[in-house]
Please model this.
Amino acid sequence: DAGITQSPRYKITETGRQVTLMCHQTWSHSYMFWYRQDLGHGLRLIYYSAAADITDKGEVPDGYVVSRSKTENFPLTLESATRSQTSVYFCASSQGPPNTEAFFGQGTRLTVV
Amino acid sequence: GENVEQHPSTLSVQEGDSAVIKCTYSDSASNYFPWYKQELGKGPQLIIDIRSNVGEKKDQRIAVTLNKTAKHFSLHITETQPEDSAVYFCAAYILTGGGNKLTFGTGTQLKVEL
Model:
């Protein structure tokens, strides 16, 4: 299907475990983003990528790792999950920089116990 | 860095009434201001945006106004309908030496009551 898809939709993991959230887009958009959404904080940027093999930190990057070996994929890894990383994670993509329309995935609800 | 404040956090209106959501930003160099709508269980979706070279933009029942001097912008929804019920996010974009930054407000839960 065309668009941007995230997997899994829901994930429960234990503190200290490594977990990877997947994001795939079919538009060949240059830019991809990872946000986390928490009550009272809105959407906060974790990492973004302007192209394959180019990534940069956002507002809250600590504890997260990203890679972009292919244009269409932008996985987000929590190296050692903590309870403070319990959140809803959204991946997004855009044809151009963030001053162009971003298209969001449906989100991944992650619970760290 | 850029800071975006959004008010109110919740807004309840009667069907057919107007709704207004306001945002302020801190960095005068910001030049792009989108509004996103998030329905329950879905990702945000762009509904309207405005760039710093215009003061107002309309699209059917929704409009956005921008006051660069005061550094605030607002979303106006007229003739509200139940399907307008959602969370709305404002955002401000700035291109800095540190990279491209789109900063979001904290969101407004709009409820349109029958």
